[in-house]
Amino acid sequence: MPEISRNDLFRKLILSWILVSLFMPGQPALAQHNGDPLLFQGSSDRYSVGVKGSAYGNAFVSRSNDLNSIFYNAAGLAGISSIQASVSSQYRDYLIRDNQYVTPTPTLSSGGYTGINLYLGRVLIPDPAWNNIWSDSLKTIWYDSLGRPIGTNWWDPNKLLTPPQDQSDYSEDAAANQKKNSSYALEHVALAIPFEFMGRQLVAAASYSRQYDEYNYDWNGIHLSPHWGMVAGDVGAVQDTVKNDIVRSNWSVFTRERSGGVYSITGALAFKLDDRIQVGAKFNYLMGQSVDSQDLQRIGYFRFKNGIGNSSWSFSYDTNDSLVTGSSKFRGTSFNIGATYNSKNFSLGLNVQLPYQIERDWSYSTQVSTLDSAKKPSVVSSAITGRDQISLPAIYTAGITIKTENGFTLSFDYRYNPLSTATYRLSSVPDSLFTKYQQWVDQATMRLGLEYTIDDNVSLMGGYQVQGAPFIGYAVADKDQGAPIDTYSCGVSVNAMHGRFDVSYVYSQLKYYDVYMSNRNFTLERSQAVLFGYTYMF
Predict the structure, then answer these.
(1) Is 449 within 8 Å of 467 (Cβ atoms)?
(2) Alpha carbons 215 and 256: distance in angstroms, whole number
(3) How far apart are CA 488 and CA 495, in angstroms?
């Protein structure tokens, strides 16, 4: 490896600092939701793998005799008595919708910046001629009974835009931004082979599957840095400056997007300890790549006169587009151990995913576009690479399955993922800069699955899953768990052509909000998936 000179090392650190400072929100106390830099978004939890398991609400940890067990609890493979091979694919679409409701600002007597909400809410589009003019000089036009203007004129109430009224906070009509995405991809190929070794029946299995669907999108149309509503004590807070000092706050539109897939190569081994107890273990080697982008596009900047009783401010248009584009490559190895206890009418299951690490090698190009003093475009470009690592904790899943005499099978799973203990090792950037990302929070997941066997060839399935989002909205009351992600599913299995055809439909929805002193953000994230699979039984 060639020796790195001191100048090259200094240059790399400076470029890293620029990259982080451009794309992190002002301070950790004002995270502006997911406005973190590109790190491991999309890697907090694997998505549904296995068509039948997906239709069944993923409540599969206590199920046996099915190749789907390789994705949930390897111990369930031990009941397989013949060679099974399966393949599946999935179509998935996403919808992410953001509604930014700008809250009324405080009154003049309380020292608030009255009228700024008209700008932030796009109710009043300022004329460029108003640049740098203080708000107390922008007089409002008033009209007499005959409609004639009275007084000095700046703001015209008749030109105010009217936002949608009486709409749901999460509706399309109320949304300030909406993003759609869809993909079609191989979901998995898998194989299970039973064999005998030293007088004991074992089952070996392997699969290649899409473990993480790396699609992540975040948008914030009111990204203020520093935020005028920061409380005293935050670095850069307006309230910390001397009275009558003028503080500048940049207003930008923040966008971050990641798309791609992380796949897993899995190997598993299971066997029966006796007629009732089965044990199994598996390893996953994950690998994949995503295309990343992050943009901070400035609209303009505000100037504030600080101090209690002051409420003057001004706005000016500005041009500054800070864009990061590139890719991330992910890899990691994890191990699972599990067991099941089976009787005639019920079974119990337990699976533990041991702690493991995911590495991310990233390569980004940064481009900062501004206007120079002559109003001509000026672009500064640079490139930077690095490696980040996240250490994830052990994940515990327990479940029970009950079978009835009339063809019904009911399963319930509980899964606990203590994500708050995840730790980062981030390279090429001074550690102090990374106090600004938002730490994940613990996830508790409950899963319910129901299957009805109509006859020897056809069964119907349905499921429900609820788990917390891995992040906390800003200024929400509950700091211990994220908003619930609700997932509903259904499917059918048909035995035919020496095997089994599976079809499932999965619908997931997350609603959450962030509360700031300037605005409230309401976000809807929705996904739908249709999965098709076939399992051949030799």
Answers:
(1) no
(2) 11
(3) 24
User: In Å, how far are 158, 338, 392, 415, 493 from 353, measured between CA atoms?
Assistant: 62, 9, 10, 11, 29
Q: What is the pLDDT of residues 196-242, one digit of tens each?
A: 998 889 999 999 998 777 688 889 898 888 776 554 444 444 444 55
Q: Which two tokens stand for residue 372?
A: 């120079």
> Within 10 A of 498 (CB to CB), how many other CB atoms are there?
9
**pTM of the predicted model as reported, rounded to 2 decimal places:** 0.85
Q: What percent of the chain shows pLDDT beyond 70?
A: 78
Nearest residue to 217 (alpha-carbon basis) of 252, 262, 258, 184: 258
Strand, coil or helix: 21: helix
Q: Cα separation of 38 and 388, whole Å?
A: 11
Q: How far is CA 441 from CA 44, 211, 331, 416, 470, in A?
A: 10, 21, 23, 11, 5
What is the spatial distance between Cα 77 and Cα 94, in angstroms, rounded to a whole number? 33
Q: What is the spatial distance between Cα 218 and Cα 471, in angstroms, rounded to a whole number? A: 13
Tokens representing residue 424 in the block:
């980062």
Task: Extract the tokens encoding 183.
Answer: 């993909």
SS3 call for 16: helix
Spell out the residues 6+ positions from residue 9 whose beta carbon is closer than 8 angstroms to its own.
none
Question: 3-class SS at 119?
Answer: helix
pLDDT tens-place string over residues 365-411 = 989 998 877 778 888 998 988 899 999 999 999 999 999 989 999 99
